[in-house]
Amino acid sequence: MSKSTGYWLIVASRDHVFAGIKGNFSQASHGRSSPLDKMNADDWIVYYSPKKIYGDTKPYQKFVAIAKVTGEEVFQVKLSESFKPYRREVRYCDDIHETDIRPLIPQLHFIKKESRWGLSLRNGFLSIPEEDFRLICSNMRD
Q1: How many domains does the chain have?
Q2: What is the pLDDT of residues 8-55, one digit of tens each?
Q3: Which of 18, 19, 59, 76 is 20 to 30 Å from the Cα of 26, by its Cα?
């Protein structure tokens, strides 16, 4: 039995997303393996960046990248003695542009309450409906 395609949203600062673009990998939830374990090859990911630079206080609030999962397995890398994040191989789309989330909020099904939309992103990793993924992608390609 074949698995259906999954659609995921990862929340990360723009600088962290761009490190992934440079290395063709995805990393989620501060390097934990559990979010990546839920993915399958051929799933899709959209990245939302609340901040441009990790630790910054100025809001950015844009969708910044789209990727297709290509790796079959989650793998671990050693960046330091204390930080050994888990990653998954992905291929990033290069024909997109960063898009503000605010105009899309009323149309996104994964956002349960518009006035408190940020709460929907608080976990940092979530499955989203295909129609939300397609809406975000179409806006990133306009």
Answers
A1: 1
A2: 999 999 999 999 999 999 999 989 999 999 999 999 999 999 999 998
A3: 59
